[in-house]
Design brief:
Shape of chain B: globular
Number of helices of chain B: 10
CATH topology of chain A: Cytochrome Bc1 Complex, Chain D, domain 2
Largest interface: A-B, 13 and 19 residues
CATH class of chain A: Mainly Alpha
Order of helices and strands of chain B: HHHHHHHHHH
Distance between the termini of chain A: 40 Å
Largest sheet of chain B: none
Strand content of chain A: 5-15%
Radius of gyration of chain B: 18 Å
Helix content of chain A: 40-55%
Helix content of chain B: 40-55%
Radius of gyration of chain A: 17 Å
Number of strands of chain A: 4
Oligomer: heterodimer
Strand content of chain B: under 5%
Shape of chain A: globular
Number of strands of chain B: 0
Number of domains of chain A: 1
Largest sheet of chain A: 2 strands, antiparallel
């Protein structure tokens, strides 16, 4: 019985400290390194970043919302291929932001698509904060 | 289509059974069964499934996971070398996943193993000194899709000829038989 309880307790605490927290911390450390006055990520800045349009990799105006829509609780559509994309907000889609490797990969790709460069730690942290609090 | 039907019916009567003709789809299903995937000879089934699952996940996130049998090895190698600018989008992978998927694609390519029907036709139609990155630009593909009006491809339900599953309802299972074609706002195809 004790064993079972320990396992339960362990999985509960592990569950609380989601892997994404670790990644957010890494991003915060990096942001602090480039700018000593860094005082935390900001969902408002992230929101602006998410909705602002840029001339992307394909030479056309595009924003994060072009594929993920204006409502992150709704399914979107890939503007390049017409394939449906499940909702981006973790509230509507439990699998979101649960796999750090996957998150890093898509931020790298999607920043390139929209901004034609990789995102900075500050930008990535801000936009993730926006998505997590949506 | 009618011509083929008459031919098929007479052939079937000659042989004395319609089973073969009627079972076209089931035949395809069997031919495209996962167990026939090569990856590497003697690879245990579990490992094979891992390769397949990774391929489906990574190369099926922006569009359907195209069957590797449709293109020759040289096309897949070239594609995997240029993922940073994959049809003007970034499709880069981490090093290990990249290696696994390259192995999966090249060992299941149209010229890597025995493939049947349209899979081999597509891949074999590519001239030896060419390595197209598009299935939709292989000669056999272009011949088969020549007769489709532009508006049916450009409409918002399809958008691109690369959106196979919009018309081939069972494309994800590797089945492209005529009976499984249903073009949005048009319906079944009879040629």
């Amino acid at each position: 019985m004790k064993k079972v309880l320990t396992v339960l307790w362990l999985s509960a605490t592990l569950g609380l400290a989601a892997p994404i927290e670790g990644y957010m911390q890494t991003l915060a450390d990096e942001a602090k390194k480039t700018d000593a006055s860094f005082s935390g990520f900001d969902a408002k800045r992230g929101e602006k970043l998410f909705f602002s349009e840029h001339v992307g990799k394909k030479g056309k105006k595009i924003s994060c919302a072009s594929c993920h829509t204006n409502d992150l609780n709704k399914a979107g559509e890939n503007v390049f291929t017409a394939k449906v994309i499940d909702p981006l907000s973790p509230k509507a889609n439990k699998e979101r932001l649960s796999d750090v490797k996957n998150v890093k990969k898509w931020l790298r790709r999607n920043f390139n698509d929209v901004y034609n460069r990789e995102g900075t730690a500050l930008e990535k942290g801000d936009v993730l904060t926006f998505i997590r609090n949506y | 289509m009618k011509k083929y039907l008459i031919m098929a019916v007479s052939a079937a009567t000659l042989i004395g059974g319609v089973a073969l003709f009627a079972d076209d789809e089931r035949y395809e299903r069997k031919v495209y069964a996962k167990s026939e995937k090569a990856v590497q000879p003697d690879m245990p089934k579990k490992k094979l499934n891992e390769f397949e699952t990774l391929y489906q996940k990574e190369c099926g996130s922006c569009h359907m996971a195209y069957q590797p049998e449709f293109l020759p090895k040289r096309s897949w190698s070239k594609m995997m070398d240029t993922l940073d600018n994959h049809f003007e989008t970034d499709a880069t992978l981490d090093v290990n996943d990249h290696k696994t998927i390259l192995t999966y694609l090249t060992s299941n390519a149209g010229d890597s193993k025995y493939t049947t029907k349209h899979f081999s036709k597509m891949s074999n139609s590519v001239p030896r000194d060419e390595a197209p990155l598009r299935i939709s630009q292989t000669p056999y593909f272009m011949k088969e899709h020549r007769g489709i009006p532009k508006r049916l491809i450009e409409q918002k339900e399809v958008k691109s000829i690369a959106n196979c599953a919009a018309c081939h309802t069972t494309a994800n299972q590797g089945i492209y038989s005529e009976r499984a074609i249903n073009i949005p706002n048009y319906g079944r195809w009879d040629d």
